[in-house]
Fold this sequence. Notes:
The chain is of the alpha+beta class. Helix content is 36%, strand content 22%. The protein is built from six helices and four strands; from the N terminus they run ααααααββββ. It has a four-stranded antiparallel β-sheet with strand order 1-2-3-4, with helices on one face. Helix 3 crosses helix 6. It starts with 26 loop residues before the first helix and ends in a 6-residue tail after the last strand.
Amino acid sequence: MFCTKCGAPLKDGLKFCTACGAKVENPAAQAQPSPPPRARPRGRAGWRTVLAPAVLTVITLAVALGAFLWATAPRTTTPDGALTLLVEGLAEGDGPRAAQAMDLTLGELAEIKSMTAAQGRAALLSALQLPLDTDTGQSLRSARLMTASLSYTNSEGTACQGSALVQLTWADGTRTTALLPDVQMEYGGAGWHIVSGLGPII
Length: 202
């Protein structure tokens, strides 16, 4: 402890400086050493160090997966994408998905959006040319577009027609390849749409 006026060393408990006679201010407070700073517990900091990179990795993977699924999802930007939406949408009974690929009036749009899975599958099967030995008595599990053979019918490249092969998977696991014939498509501002060639659907 030191005198605040002259800086001379002072013994504990003195009320006046022995060198200059100045009053020692609050000798009890100066005599007590300040407590050492508290050390932070390492456990919490350790969890933060491990948790932060793990959370960042999970977020990065989720964003990457979302971008991949978005990039690979079928869209109406190509004729094949529109056909894929139609085939898969009808097979799954997903009316809104199938409707994206069709040029429909408001009444038709409301009807297809409210269809059941059984109605969607029946509509798809009625538009396809199935092999003669196909057992249509069992339920359809899924359908996917295999390939499409389309040719443009105008110089602007905004209309095309052709056919597509569709693979059907039945409830017992057997598969059938069916033909979707005479499909006509047109390109509008929102993408490609099927305008005719789906039998009772369009």
